[in-house]
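Our example pasted here:


***
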Amino acid sequence: MIRFPNLRIPFGLLLLGLVLILTGAAPVGDDHQVAKPAEAASPMVQEILDSHAASRVRVAELTSGLAGLIDQSEILRIEREIEQVKVDAQIEMIRIQVRYARERGDTEMADRMEADIAADSSNNNTGQ
C-alpha cells in the first residue's frame, strides 16, 4: 500500500478527486446523472489517463493469467505483480503531476510530492 504521510490532503481523497476530475463523473441531482466534461482533457490529465489505461490493460492480462491456476506459489506471484503494477501506476500519476508542477513553476509542490514518493519507497523497501 502506498502512503504519502507528508501530504496535507489524504491520498485517498486526492485520488478520488483526481478520478472525478479525470472522468468528469460527478453525481448531479437526485437521479445521479453524470456530469460530462465541458471540454477535452488537459495534456496532464490526458497523460494520466493514458498511463492509467496502460496499467489497467496490464492488470487485466495478469488477472486473466490467474484463471485455472492451482499452484499457490504462482497465484501469489501473479497477485504480487498485480499489486506492484497498481502501486507503480499511482507513482507514475504523481510523477506526471510533479513534472507539470515544475513546468508551471510550482517547485514547492513538486518537491513535496517527490519527497513523499521517496519516503514511501524507502519505507516499503525496509518492510514497514
